[in-house]
Amino acid sequence: MTFPVLKGASYILVHTPDMIVKNGTTCAVERETHPESEFLKEVTNHIRSYEEVVNYIPNQVYIGNNRPEELREIALPWCEYKMEGKRDGKRGEIMPQDEFLAMMQICDAFDLVKLKEDFVNNIRPNFEKNYPELAPFFGKLKGDNIDDANELIDSHHAEGLYHNDQLVGYVKRAHDVDVNLNAHTMFENLVVKASGVVAAVQLIRKENVNPLDIDYVIECSEEACGDMNQRGGGNFAKAIAEMAGLQNASGSDTRGFCAGPTHALINAAALVKSGIYKNVMVVAGGASAKLGMNAKDHVKKGLPVLEDVVGGFAVLVSENDGVNPIIRTDLTGKHSVGTGSSPQAVMTALITSGLDRANLKITDVDVYSVEMQNPDITKPAGAGDVPEANYKMIGALAVKRGDLEKKELKNFVSEKGIPGWAPTQGHIPSGVPYIGFGIDDLTSGDKNRAMVVGKGSLFLGRMTNLFDGVSFIVERNQGVEEEAAAVSKEEIKKIIAESMKKLAQDMLIEE
To answer: Which parts pass through the membrane (predicted)?
Structure first.
């Protein structure tokens, strides 16, 4: 059986220090409820510079310059570890805020983003140098008079854009009365689109992909775009494809909270496996609302505000090339409606259902990629080490099934797991961060099988209390195999011979 492959992956971070305070939900709610709080007075003193963000080792891991295993050798908090990082990574980049504001403007299709003229003049050279792929849209980067900015912002007709704590522009509302097109929502959606475009461009650049070869795009972030008649009508995917030059692609949005990316990758694999499309890009922009989500705990403990980046990624799923890791579409796991919500029931459904169909043990998987949140962020906030907790549950399940001796449980966590490194942007850390490393490990590395697991909390949407999750197995490619049902050359010859014989007989009868 021929399976689709993971052909490439990109990962991007955008340093957005001003958005933490101005647009992140934690600071926005605090400003609304306790405008004179000590937290609001103190938070700006804990915001890192761009250089500090680049030199933060989990961020270097995210863009592919360092391996996640290196984090095991470094004591927490990692924000105190000194290193010299790079903007450009093996699989992506860390983008500065000023260039991102320019990206938001060129991604704006309805003239909603206004930027100060001197700001645009200063940023244009760097932006055009760093993103030559977007040359067809450079004309959209233009400066304006923004003397009306404060009035529009105060009346909630616009959302301010800031750099170095200075107002440099704004995003206007797109409708007078539609809350789905108000300034705040348009700001958030443009952040998603712009960061998704950066991820798509990086995938094309790093993996040397021909943009015209992409047939379909699936966007899997956690925001939704639409209007009062269809709040989540979409379509981020096609909007990103347009900017990235994917002229032959269509697309749609897939949502599933944190599990969305894994759902999207399974959908992409199914589209390729079925032959509907040859190359499908799964892409996600980041969430400005989650910036500084745990900032209160970080500030209280004297730490920097570590949730200071918007994340994004893109993954290319393609037809089997005989080289890249295959997605075993026959070995997926899922949390079904009847599964239940206990941790044991969830893990059993996600981890073992796919393995059982291939008579595999939990220990037959070389590495599990779960919720790869950075513990530097989550532990000070009281959420513990999320990846480690997942690995302990998987190990306990292995013991319960008889796949693992109890005395080997501690080793299981270190042998089958990897430290978390991804920013806590919901969908961003969920299974997907390992895929880039997985492509390396399952081609030139020493791994043969990995499992990607995505989990989501559906109660957040207030439509159901059900849990959610899906998983899939990735394996080293053994070379393209012919379909079992494929017609052989000998069979083709036989069919042709029989057809010719019948044709000759028919001609004789007619005579």
So the answer is: none
